[in-house]
Amino acid sequence: MTVVEHLRELRYRVGVSMAALVVGGLFGIWWFSHRLFGLPSLADILLGPYCALPPTMRFSPGDGGCRLLQTAPFEVFALQLKVGFTAGAVLLSPVWLHQLWAFITPGLRAVERRFAAQFVGFGSVLFVAGALLAYSVVPAGLAFMVGFGGDAFYTALTGAEYVRFVLLMLFLFGVCFELPLLVVMLNRAEVLSYAALRSWWRGIVFGLFVLSAVATPQDPISMLALGTTLCALFAVALAVCRRHDRRRRVAAPDVPSPEVKASPTPTTETKDHAWLR
């Protein structure tokens, strides 16, 4: 394929992806204020964690409803565009991911295609799982933060501030959930061995909690939820790396194992980690 043909292919793939994003965005804008097949609207979904707070901790009008504040004429309109196009990009991600995949795969070998497909598949599942966890802990985090004022302060959040906070939490949790998958991918690429990961496990656990504190500095509840879940996912990744290294040694018994390279002689630290074997 010539350079011109590559450029034409790229233009076609980008055009289809942009069309999918526009269609998805328009659908998301409509879904923002309308129910869909019995599902709540996007506005109701986003307001769920906020409305779960006790009435004394949130702005509650006289009719007993649950609402956020609008402080600018076009604030809600801009918010609807932002949320709608974000939701549309997520819902139609199979379309633009397929276009990206179709443009890249002709230059990959069969093994590389399988490797990349596994990464995209598991990565998507982990990102969604992280976003769902974030959505479940947002009410507890909000209650912790707005409770500092006690009776001296009345909390009234604007729509832009609240939605920015929720979307940021969903994104950060989703990205952090990709870290164990990255560990497994590096192990398959023979960059990290199970023996090395096993010897570093204390530092890795500490680093995961530090990352959780940096990603969610606003409250300890979100930090503990994210840190504990990441440690559990790291344990699963460690087991996968252990299995992969064993299979690699069976397939190539003459090649020195990663464990031998990482720890040539028994040490006290190795004995301390015997429970991981």
List keywords for this structure.
277 residues; mainly alpha; 12 helices; 0% strand; proton motive force dependent protein transmembrane transporter activity; transport; membrane; Sec-independent protein translocase protein TatC; translocation
Give a verbal description of the structure.
This protein is mainly alpha-helical and 277 residues long. Residues 258-263 have low confidence and may be disordered. The protein has one domain (3-59, 73-250). It has helices spanning 3-32, 42-51, 75-91, 93-104, 110-146, 159-176, 179-188, 194-199, 201-215, 220-251, 258-262, 268-272. It has twelve helices and no strands.
Summarize the structure.
The protein has 277 residues and is mainly alpha-helical.
Task: Describe the secondary structure blueprint for this structure.
Layout: H1 3-32, H2 42-51, H3 75-91, H4 93-104, H5 110-146, H6 159-176, H7 179-188, H8 194-199, H9 201-215, H10 220-251, H11 258-262, H12 268-272
Helix pairs in contact: 1-3, 1-4, 5-6, 5-10, 7-10, 9-10
